[in-house]
Design goal:
This protein is an alpha+beta fold. 46% of the residues lie in helices and 15% in strands.
């Protein structure tokens, strides 16, 4: 039970943010003036003017930052379209390009000229052109169409409206420009983002995996770090500088604004600013919603995910082919599992539940003064909704992250379409459905390793059997014996088990044979269980959006609109300073690492900690050139207290003068509850030092030609 003294302390921490926000906030620069951000930036140390950060009519840092690959951030660092991001942001794209003969992922790649820059399939880079407040337009459209709050905030409603507004705008004929609308402050405001996407992006440099990901998932979210998590690409355009699909005739994109690079380095306490596209935060939740997030979502995913990761790691360590094949999936799953587990642990250690309860008590007092009846009962209404759904939500995520992880799968719509074609009996439709079925088969089940997939299912389905709360499990999991017999039959006899068996069936397809196939029964039973669970979530999803809008709006009013909106993968700025931290008693972490630390971590018995031999030669020679510190050591990474989250990966870290000093790539494990509440004492952003990046591009990799076009300031 929280004492009055603890309540007073928590309340002081919460309300103090309205007077002095410290460095919290992923700020939407469109609202800079309204939220009085310029004065805070100046006091923090920014030497640029606010217009230098975000300006729609003159050059600004807005033009130097974009969305990379649909999930990360990258920054423009030359007038000819060079961009820097994280190695882990380009990981899946480089993975798809790699083979055992040309393993750009594990062996690395450094182009020696523009002629050697490699096209990257399916990779895009997107600039933000303009941001408009469309709150009134959304409200009017929702009123006309008589939609509820859940629908009004959904992309199914907002996408057509964004397209309509784009067609009315001065950008309607601009090549590659699209528009999207995103809700802010719980749906109390809406902003439209005009964005231009380039689809010809080429690989320039990618460090070897044992440099870029030294420590791999074991070091994920940990400090100190010694990995060069960066990669370099270049944006290409047509002869008119407009977006175009890949062509040998395309030219490097000419950029009027790009980030200069500082070789002067950083010192403890220096001002740092990060611009990027943070993915998602949830800082306006009640205590019960935090509990729901940690125990009904994070906990079941983490439990199943840890088991799967351990299984994959053992296989990857003993088989180089499996290592390449599973590398992308292992990194992605490992990142999520460690994030969710760290969040749950951090919620406990930081006393977040008590802080949230203190905020609720303050809100109840505010609600009584506000005269708004909807505020008086909103917390109780949210608590009741959460209590009714917590077991259902737990089982939903448990089902999805156990038997739902199966790779032996073909898109359900393609299977259903083929069944319908067979039922109708029209040859033309059957042939078309066959083609679609084979196409989707090749995209999923056709590339799956069925032996590995079967082992994964044997590992995961017992977790669903043991830990489900409501009994909504597929009938083939009635018990362990039934499950084993079912999976034996599925993987050994299904006509979907190989392309050859599927093609053989399609020569003379039979609806009776298809419906009797164990694959059909398997996914029918799975989907039936999923539908039963999802039915219990339908009202919850609709109602929660409605209630959260009221509570979020009330909190914003209580804080006088001085809090930043939750992240939603839109362009944001966060400011802070270089500095270490003390995570627990008698432990103090410094703010900088050097290459020496890689040698100290090296462990020949662990593949994640084996040093690159070419890099070792440079270490032994001590020849780092102009990239060395005054003491001769090579800087690797540094810490700052910037407020970031997923999606900020690859974001530029700039100094008070707007010069690039590093690339953000991770956070620290002690602050993983920061998506729920910023903790200034523990929140740290882990950045690769730009001097280490330049050393690897220039001295180590030999891609020196790119430095000639960059503005490098000593």
């Amino acid at each position: 039970m929280m004492t009055n003294r603890l309540f007073s302390l928590c309340l002081a921490l919460l309300l103090g943010m309205s007077a002095a926000r410290a460095d919290e906030g992923m700020w939407l620069l469109k609202l800079m003036e309204r939220q009085h951000l310029a004065d805070s930036l100046r006091k923090a140390g920014l030497e640029l003017s606010p217009a230098d950060l975000y300006n729609e009519s003159a050059p600004s840092l807005r033009e130097c930052v974009g969305q990379f690959g649909g999930g990360c951030t990258a920054e423009v660092v030359s007038p000819d379209g060079l961009i820097l991001t994280n190695n882990h942001c380009g990981f899946s794209f480089v993975h798809a390009m790699s083979t055992m003969e040309h393993n750009y992922l594990q062996d690395g790649y450094f182009a020696k000229s523009r002629a050697e820059e490699l096209p990257v399939p399916n990779l895009t880079f997107t600039f933000v052109v303009r941001i408009d407040d469309v709150t009134a337009e959304v409200a009017e459209a929702a009123r006309k169409e008589k939609v509820d709050e859940y629908t009004a905030q959904s992309q199914s409603f907002l996408e057509p409206l964004a397209e309509k507004l784009l067609k009315k705008s001065d950008l309607k004929k601009a090549k590659g420009v699209a528009a999207r609308i995103e809700p802010f402050f719980g749906g109390n405001e809406f902003y439209l983002f005009y964005e231009q996407t380039f689809s010809d992006v080429r690989l320039v440099a990618n460090p070897p995996q044992n440099i870029a990901q030294f420590g791999f998932n074991q070091d994920n979210w940990m400090w100190p770090r010694h990995n060069a998590d960066f990669a370099m690409f270049r944006i290409y355009a047509d002869k008119d500088g407009q977006p175009a699909d890949y062509s040998e005739a395309n030219q490097p994109l000419k950029c009027k604004k790009y980030l200069p690079v500082s070789l002067r380095g950083v010192e403890d306490g220096d001002y740092t600013m990060i611009m990027g596209f943070p993915g998602s935060t949830s800082r306006f939740l009640t205590a019960s919603e935090v509990h729901l997030r940690t125990q009904s979502q994070n906990a079941p995913i983490n439990m199943a995910g840890e088991a799967q990761l351990n299984f994959m790691k053992a296989l990857m360590d003993r088989d180089s082919v499996a290592n390449l094949k599973l590398a992308d999936e292992y990194m992605s799953l490992g990142n999520m599992v460690k994030n969710f587990g760290g969040m749950n642990e951090s919620v406990k250690k930081t006393g977040l539940m008590d802080i949230k309860r203190a905020e609720e008590k303050a809100f109840r007092q505010f609600a009584a003064r506000s005269g708004k009846p909807e505020y008086a009962t909103i917390i109780d209404r949210i608590d009741s909704l959460v209590a009714a759904v917590e077991d259902t939500l737990h089982d939903y995520f448990l089902l999805r992250f156990t038997v739902g992880q199966q790779s032996f799968y073909v898109r359900q719509q393609a299977v259903d379409a083929f069944v319908q074609a067979l039922e109708k009996g029209k040859e033309k439709d059957i042939e078309a459905a066959k083609t679609e079925l084979l196409r989707w088969y090749d995209m999923a089940a056709g590339s799956a390793d069925l032996a590995f997939d079967r082992q994964t299912m044997d590992l995961l389905y017992p977790y669903l059997l043991k830990h489900n709360r409501l009994g909504f499990v597929p009938s083939f999991l009635k018990d362990a014996a039934t499950a084993k017999a079912h999976y034996d039959e599925l993987y050994a006899t299904s006509l979907f088990r190989s392309r050859a068996t599927l093609e053989d069936f399609l020569k003379a397809p039979s609806l009776e044979v298809l419906n009797a196939d164990p694959y059909m029964k398997h996914w029918a039973d799975y989907n039936q269980a999923l539908a039963a669970i999802s039915k219990g979530l339908a009202n919850y999803k609709t109602k929660r959006v409605e209630l959260d809008k009221i509570y979020t709006g009330g909190l914003c009013e209580m804080y006088n609109w001085a809090k930043a909106p939750d992240a939603n993968f839109t362009l944001r700025m966060t400011y802070g300073h270089v500095g270490g931290y003390s995570p627990r008693d008698a432990v103090q972490y410094g703010w900088q690492t050097v290459l020496d630390g890689m040698l100290e971590k090296e462990n020949p018995r662990d593949p994640d900690y084996v040093m690159n031999e070419d890099l070792r030669k440079f270490y032994l020679s001590g020849n780092y050139g102009r990239y060395a510190l005054p003491n001769g050591k090579l800087p690797v990474c540094f810490l700052s207290n910037n407020d970031i989250t997923g999606g900020n990966s690859g974001s530029p870290v700039v100094n008070a003068r707007g010069e690039l000093i590093g690339i953000a790539f991770d956070g620290n494990i002690e602050s993983l509850s920061s998506d729920l509440r910023f903790n200034p004492a523990l929140q740290r952003c882990i950045n690769v030092d730009i001097r280490y990046v330049l050393f690897l591009l220039d001295t180590f990799g030999g891609s020196s030609y790119v430095l000639d076009e960059m503005d490098i300031r000593e």
